[in-house]
Amino acid sequence: MSGSCKFECVTCTAPVNIAVIKYWGKKDESLILPTNPSLSVTLGQDELRAKTSVAVSESFKEDRIWLNGREESIESPRIQNVLKEIRRRAHKRSADSKGESKLFQHVHIVSENNFPTAAGLASSAAGYACLVYSLAKLFAVQGEISDIARQGSGSACRSIYGGFVKWKMGEREDGTDSYAVQVAPESHWPEMRALILVVSDQKKLVGSTEGMQTSIATSELMKHRINLVPKWTDEIIEAIKQKDFTTFAKITMRESNQLHAVCLDTYPPIMYLNDTSKLIIRLVHCINDILGVEKVAYTFDAGPNACLYLLEEDVPRVLHLVKHFFLPAQSNGQPSFVTGIPVPESEAFTSDISNIHLPQSQGAIKYVIHTKVGPGPQVLTDPQESLFHEDGTPK
Ligand code: DP6
After folding, report:
1. What Pfam families is this protein classified in (predicted)?
2. Which residues lie closer than 8 Å to 14 by C-beta, 6 or more apart?
3. Per-residue pLDDT, 99
4. Residue nearest to ligand 1 atom 5, measured at CA
């Protein structure tokens, strides 16, 4: 428990994950049960993380939540589902012990991200994973908790683990077999890197919850996808285990393309990719053509930002080409165009540039985040890390 609090409190961080087999579609909206399994890579928390402090006290008059500096309604059904489930499990566990009194006290929750919220950067995944992990620590809930995170936001269940993570679809109607499992730890493939190309940091036009509902209701292609995805999931898990980058990259790109084909097949159509996203896709294929094999893979969630997966040795070359074709804006307000893990100076790759016939554009990519595969949520023991003042209000 963090020491500076005059009440019982816990502070944790949780990572972002970017799927290579996407979750798209629910068979139960309230329990958040998916229509297909999915698989993601957990990213490094130095670059992308949610941080949450949770506290209980006799003196709190009601449950309250502050997100990124603003108080929000605690009545959101998803937050309520998470709180109820944590309290239910904690109650079950402590029924015979004395630690029960705090179960009847109110909670205060403060959470913030170190990256733009709702920029299509899986902020809800990191946020709900962090909330559930912190509450589980506070109330001493043990055992599997990814199924609780799932009830906050589906993709959040995968942020409960580090490395490469599968969300098992499950078959039971009550959702008890729909949770995340680690396929390989973050240490398994240390050369794996991610470059997040931030095309837009605006809130997305069609949220993923709404988008997938419309796809399920209207897309014919969706039925085909649901049958195909389990096979791709097994194949990519095997590629990860074998560290077979080529297979990993091919499945990742085809899977992302299929998701966006389903979006276009949705009625009315949903278009998450913009012209810059499409140019990024073309650039990646040009680079792979030059290198003679798939060395870079793109994937897009419900927005125009790209996540490129590649190996460490290829980062300087790919980044050089990204910067050549997507020149930084003159003044974009960012301290630097590329943030995150430092990249060594590269040569000019002039022959690559002359072999790639694409237009150059300036300012289309706002900035790039360079990160790697990272661990799951962490408890911060330093009291300075708490997001609470001593009276239980946010700092
Ligand atoms: C495109 O987890 O945000 O990022 O369960 O409705 O909260 P809800 O949806 P959410 O959907 C994420 C969709 C995706 C693909 C993925 O991360 O697998």
Report:
1. MDD_C, MVD-like_N
2. 45, 49, 50, 52, 126, 127, 129, 130, 133, 159, 160, 376, 377, 378
3. 56
4. 154
